[in-house]
Amino acid sequence: MSNVEVVANIQDLVSNLESVIAAQIMADIDRANNFQIIAEETYSILTSGRLVKPKMSNRKTIAVSGNVATVSGWDSLNTKWKQSIKQNKRIYLEQDESQVKEYYHNLRTEFNRYGYQTKVWELDPKNNLGKHYRSHAEKQISVIQPDNSIGVSRGMCEEDCYPYFYALAQIRQQNIIIADPNGIWLFYTYGQVKFVYRLS
């Protein structure tokens, strides 16, 4: 993560940009912040309603964009979760790591051009290496509900999600904003990344 520039405030994320582009990015930051609040509320509904087993509650992450939320992992989404979130938040809860796998496979050459390859985790299924990192909620939402504003309930994974979004912004030629509890990440289309910590 050597190319991350930590800035002092949100306005520094858009300094030196044309006013129209800066205004659009600020609007996208507002959307990402709103999605981040919804992600935390969704996570709270799942854990406080005892929908998620206690041992799983500290391992799940929620990512939100538009009217869709994704939950990290694979083969763990159940109907009660989906119904509860749809009823309480009016958003659709999804989980589909296989879409991330297919997306990455189809664009492997482009991802490699920007220095990204899915990492392998020691507990990955032997016949499906990289599944753990592909199952991260923020990656799932980027494929299931493509948007440039994403909110996440936990701090973004810097070891694999950071390089993924660094590449993705350049592949899509779209600035991508991710708001997590720690701050706001802005991945620019030209390969720069800025981060601002939350003041709380």
The number of distinct β-strands equals: 8
Across the major sheet, the strand order is 1-8-7-6-5-2-3-4
Largest beta-sheet details? 8 strands, mixed
End-to-end Cα distance: 24 Å
> In percent terms, what proportion of residues is strand?
15-25%
- Could you tell me the mean pLDDT? 90
The secondary-structure element order is EHHEEHEHHHHEHEEE
Overall, the morphology is globular
Helix/strand class: alpha/beta
- Number of separate helices: 8
- The helix content is 40-55%
Radius of gyration: 16 Å
Poorly predicted runs? none
Structural account:
The protein has 200 residues and is of the alpha/beta class. 42% of the residues lie in helices and 17% in strands. It has 8 helices and 8 strands; from the N terminus they run E-H-H-E-E-H-E-H-H-H-H-E-H-E-E-E. The protein has helices at 19-48, 54-57, 79-89, 97-106, 108-113, 131-134, 137-144, 161-172; strands at residues 4-7, 62-65, 68-71, 92-94, 149-152, 176-180, 183-187, 193-197. The chain has an 8-stranded mixed sheet with strand order 1-8-7-6-5-2-3-4. Helix 1 (19-48) crosses helix 3 (79-89). The longest helix is centred in the first third of the chain and has 30 residues, at 19-48. 40% of the residues are buried. The mean pLDDT is 90.
